[in-house]
Amino acid sequence: MKGIMVVVSLLFLLSCEQGSLSDNKETRDSEAITVSVNKKDSNETVYTAENVPEKMTVQEKKKRFRYLLVPAVKKVFSELKHQHQNIERSIKAGNDRLLIKQLKVEYKAESDEDLLARLKPHPVSIVLAQAAMESAWATSRFFVEAKNIFGVWSFDKDEPRIAAAEKRGKKTIWLKKYKSIEDAIRDNYRVLARGNAFSKFRQIRLVSDNPFELVKGLDKYSELGSKYGKELAAVIRYNKFNQYDLKSKI
């Protein structure tokens, strides 16, 4: 009997020792993974709007652009998508009539249908393409100093703004200064939702989420006319910006 007990005790001690070795190995593996992750995180480049690294390659410039713009655009798109869905539900249910009335005034909408057309956000890819073109891939002075991605002018002397480097004749051109990249993106969506010049764009948006069709309606956004839409389409296609639209449909 004593012999059996000794054998059992030895087996128990061996199993404990093996378990301890296994636990130590798992701990070491876990520590190695943690160190690896921390090392990766510490090596990741953190970009800011205010700082443009010198002598960036084209690839580095585009990497910085995506780092700064893609999360911000997707965030604003999501906000506006949910707003559109909530207002659509309220209109169908006959609720929030005061809010809907206020939005109609703000967005210059003549009917419930017109309001929904104006509130519907266009694809992320178009915003990114416009941002790339208008801000020289997030390196322009307007972007760095004012987070003004789209070159939006200011006509209100009481709002934050900066002066353009060049004048038109003797007239100083002022550009809006935004608190954040997201604010600049929200304002751009609002401009396209309110402006009479973009009614064609909004009409196309009612029936299509295809960015290559939609950009044809932005011929009045720029002095380039119809060429502007073609350039936007080329930027979207070449940089594969439409990949961000896959999960952005309403």
Q: What does this 3D model show about the protein?
A:
There is one protein chain. With 250 residues, this protein is an all-alpha fold. It has a domain at 58-144 and 179-245: Lysozyme. The chain contains ten helices and two strands. The protein has a two-stranded antiparallel ribbon. α5 (124-134) crosses α10 (226-239). The longest helix has 42 residues, at 2-43. The protein is globular. The termini are far apart. Residues 1-40 have low confidence and may be disordered.
Could you outline the blueprint of secondary structure elements for this entry?
Layout: H1 2-43, H2 58-93, H3 97-107, H4 112-119, H5 124-134, H6 141-146, E1 161-163, E2 174-176, H7 181-194, H8 199-207, H9 211-214, H10 226-239
Antiparallel strand pairs: 1-2
Helix pairs in contact: 2-5, 2-7, 3-4, 5-10
Number of strands: 2
Q: What does the average pLDDT come to?
A: 85
Q: Tell me about the biggest sheet?
A: 2 strands, antiparallel
Structural shape? globular
Backbone CA Rg: 28 Å
Low-confidence regions: 1-40
Structural class comes to mainly alpha
Text of the CATH class of the domain at 58-144 and 179-245: Mainly Alpha
Order of helices and strands: HHHHHHEEHHHH
Order of strands across the biggest sheet?
A: 1-2
Estimate percent helicity.
Answer: 55-70%
**Distance between the amino and carboxyl termini:** 77 Å
Could you please say which CATH topology of the domain at 58-144 and 179-245 applies here? Lysozyme
Q: How large is the share of residues in beta strands?
A: under 5%
CATH architecture field of the domain at 58-144 and 179-245: Orthogonal Bundle
Question: Count of helices?
Answer: 10
